[in-house]
């Protein structure tokens, strides 16, 4: 029987297979697990920052839209007419 074969019955596994892992391997496994935990914590922190940035971006988008709405309203430009505002001159032109 191949030593890498999957056993469906644990009673078929030689008892020596369940001997304790050597200290160096155990330390390596612990180190890897610790690093994975550190990475998971960093990812969580990044996701939390991402949520905050998305919320801020959404608020800025709303504010931007409100300013554009005020410009449209004060000049009688309907919402379905696209406009371009030149960033240096403030000139408004229709967006074809």
Strand content: 5-15%
Number of helices: 1
- State the end-to-end distance: 75 Å
Low-confidence stretches: none
Oligomeric form: single chain
Descriptors for this entry?
single chain; 96 residues; mainly alpha; two-stranded antiparallel ribbon; 1 helix; 2 strands; 55% helix; rod-shaped
Secondary structure: elements and pairs:
Layout: H1 23-75, E1 83-85, E2 92-94
Antiparallel strand pairs: 1-2
Structure description:
This protein is 55% helix and 6% strand. The protein is mainly α. The protein has one domain. It has a two-stranded antiparallel ribbon. A hairpin with a 6-residue loop joins strand 1 and strand 2. The chain is rod-shaped. The N and C termini lie far apart (75 Å). The model has no long low-confidence stretch (mean pLDDT 91).
Quick summary of this structure?
With 96 residues, the protein is mostly helical. The chain has one helix at 23-75; strands spanning 83-85, 92-94. A two-stranded antiparallel ribbon has the order 1-2.
């Amino acid at each position: 029987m191949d030593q890498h074969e999957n056993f469906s019955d644990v009673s078929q596994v030689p008892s020596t297979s369940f001997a304790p892992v050597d200290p160096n391997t155990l330390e390596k496994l612990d180190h890897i697990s610790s690093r994975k935990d550190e990475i998971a914590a960093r990812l969580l922190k990044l996701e939390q920052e991402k949520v905050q940035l998305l919320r801020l971006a959404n608020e800025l988008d709303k504010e931007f839209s409100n300013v554009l709405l005020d410009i449209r309203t004060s000049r009688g430009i309907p919402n379905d007419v696209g406009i371009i505002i030149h960033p240096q001159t403030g000139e408004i032109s229709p967006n074809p």
